[in-house]
């Protein structure tokens, strides 16, 4: 089989025209929007032209089926509210090109998929979540977007296209190519990342309840300043995690809400988000323990109350060893010494697929590490290199 | 002259009935509201009964004049949106009782004042600010409250009562009794504070502009996390100020705004308030220098940009030495060994009066340091002790 890089890039640019918006190569193509449904209709026509059997399932996942049983390659074609042209779209068009090339070559069949609502207008990776069986269609139907529209109402716009859910057994494995969405490859000489794991995520909300007071009349030593608690917690946390974490472990305080949040008032309460990600469940647990203990210690030292809400989580997902090896072999052939094994810090449809079939992922660099933004981009040389690596791996599997 | 503690407390409770609201002894009596104008009418009637000449000036400051030239005693009778029964009201009723007792005793005349809008529905200490000449009536008239009502419109409700502004020369000095609004007296054995200075205030807004990034895909060492900049700045500031400040110096980060303030996004920008107060202008300047240098250092170390907006300020105001001495002598007589000299960390009408006449202030304890809240309170024994100390000082001056 011989992939056609020009045709691949032309299709990728064509897909961008559905919902092209903002600056540069920006795209706004929310799940179930007019642009999204039109993009899927165009994708379906390209699949048909390639001799693939078009299949929509009830949630709007679009398949181009290469045969009765095959490898599945793809990603999603919906975008963030302010999205780039590659995130998701890249993996779908790569899948289309490889399935098409396989048909042309009379090689073993390859199928392609564009999952629906990966970007979470309603849930998180909603289309693959429902197809994997983790989330029922009934539960999903009750999810609402920020404007109060339910998924039930949204998917009704595609109801005329929908057939049944496909049996997972039709597919021998799932491969997803994606931009890294981080700066690691871009800041190195490596052009390809073979994903080892999709990291697990832990999320919780913590509050310190001190005492709200007049910022002029309350001496420093009599204050129970909630912001000072947060600052002390953060500094101590960074120090205490240092000996436990790896270079790919991350933790973030991204949301902070002070009360009453006024310049002349000693803050009486702070609520903040604490998120941490790692590929190792045990390390995630140990980090949680440190966070929990430290919040209590800071509260006790400063005579305030710490409230720790329950920890929410998504488990780490290791990639299939066989598929990883196929990608690594293909990467070494196409880009000798210029690829690495790395975890994915972001969630992907592959996380859900791992519950029902072997999965693996491939990353190409994100310029400046930018994603979920209009100015997300990747050199076209890296896009076609990624296609080549992916096609090479598929060939050995199919 | 013999002050009547029972009559004083009865009047204080009666004043509370105008706008009584919320829980406990809470009061809502915003400047120029129906409750405020009714309270002033009642105060005027009590002044008249005491043989004082009632005088409203154009901004709504209400005077009870004891003679052609006299000591002036008072404070303000408007409240915060959620106020207590003492803040302001205490000083006004103390002034009323002392002026009344002086009249009854045929002693040297004493006058009383209730300033308008000390609590800043429109400006800050607006009534005394205008009378002192610092703010013109024209400028004040253009000030608007949170609902867009101008002071011009608000004071029109009292226009039928208004006479001219009084010449400052009618008064030999101004004495203001107030609750401390902080915990220092309440947490000690002292019952009286003789105010040495009203502290100066410096206020500025600082921003750190880092880089907004995905909280899963951006490794820790490649982040420019604006919240981490703030936390590092705060910790270093506390350490660096330690050798410069006195026990009464205060500094506060009371307002924090993160962008985009989402748990899965590395914060790209933080804007926060930095306020510091001290009685000494030179120390205020040195603190400002440390804050400025440190913000730049943190920004440079972390490769982000610091934006420091201009420093706004209110200058420190020392109390008159003679009036302070009179209060101290009286305090030692009424509460031997149970009083202290202390700065006021909060602004008061006395700050404005200091520009046009000698001023001094007296504090009584605030239970739990609470003020600007419905549950603000002080033991009645402390209220009457304060009245006694104030009356004793007035007697030696008049």
UniProtKB/TrEMBL annotation, chains A, B:
Keywords in alphabetical order: Hydrolase, Metal-binding, Zinc
CDD domains associated with the record: M20_bAS
Record's keyword annotation contains Zinc: yes
Keyword Zinc assigned: yes
Residue ranges of every copy of the Peptidase M20 dimerisation domain listed in the record: 200-301
Cofactor dependency: Zn(2+)
Gene Ontology molecular function: hydrolase activity, acting on carbon-nitrogen (but not peptide) bonds, in linear amidines; metal ion binding
Binding site for Zn(2+) 2: 87, 119, 372
Transmembrane intervals: none
EC number: 3.5.-.-
Binding site for Zn(2+) 1: 76, 87, 178
Matches recorded under NCBIfam families: hydantase
Similarity annotation: Belongs to the peptidase M20 family.
Protein name stated in the entry: Hydantoinase/carbamoylase family amidase
Lineage of the organism: Bacteria, Pseudomonadati, Pseudomonadota, Alphaproteobacteria, Rhodobacterales
